[in-house]
Amino acid sequence: MTGIRSTVSVAPGILFVEGPLSNWTVFTGNGSVELVDCGYPADLPLVEESIRRAGADPADLRRILITHGHSDHLGASARFAERGVVVATSADELPNVRREVTEQVTIRDLLPSILKRGTVRWAIAAVRAGGLRDVGVASAVALEGDEVHLSTGHTLQLVAAPGHTTGSVCFIEPESRSLLSGDAIVGGHPLLRENGELQQLPGFFQHDADEAARSAQRLVLCDVDRVLPGHGPIVELARA
């Protein structure tokens, strides 16, 4: 699949997008657009399409918030940055986003799992989508404080979730009670058996598997109604 899988209007001005291989969220309002994550590099036209589906103009994109610096979330951020769009992430993740360091799964990391069902197909699709490109954004800036006030009128609360990468961060949108979890916890993935359930990605994706597990345990205790993951569908939570 090379197109948008689905879009879900989570709340006014919040559109969750399932891309071909990874997800992003579009925030609109006040004549402005902001994103959380950006898909793969090849998803640039799909990101612009999703902004139009949200009823906005891609030219109104002001900022992209990055949960972590993997190529399937940084995507075409550098291309957008050339147009004047601000790219921001947590202070601890900034070196990875700028590619001063690289915490990214490699072909070598995949080799022990290469014979597992779906691995080769997924790897080929990821490479074709730009997974091996240089996606660093040298101009990226650090988010400050525990809240981000979007130009769209929304407010996001930062939740540190280290492990998948050193400075992985999630966001809670309190009005819709949604957790934007990046890859700290996901709803599915081509290399996972289950779909629609909260889970972690396979261990070789994790920079620090033990720390990633601790972050995942904390995240499932967040007081939210749904999770908007970096992979897989939205997961609605039943809270007693």
Describe the structure.
- The chain is of the alpha/beta class and 240 residues long.
- It has a single domain (6-99, 109-234), classed as Metallo-beta-lactamase, Chain A (4-Layer Sandwich).
- 21% of the residues lie in helices and 25% in strands.
- The chain has 7 helices and 13 strands.
- The chain has helices at residues 44-53, 71-74, 77-82, 94-98, 107-110, 119-128, 209-219; strands at residues 6-11, 14-18, 23-29, 32-36, 61-65, 86-89, 141-142, 147-149, 155-160, 169-173, 178-182, 226-229, 235-236.
- Strands 1-2-3-4-5-6-7 form a 7-stranded mixed sheet. The protein has a 6-stranded mixed sheet with strand order 8-9-10-11-12-13, with no helix packed on it.
- A hairpin with a 2-residue loop joins strand 3 and strand 4 (32-36).
- The longest helix has 11 residues, at 209-219.
- The radius of gyration is 16 Å and the shape is globular.
- The protein starts with 5 loop residues before the first strand and ends with a strand.
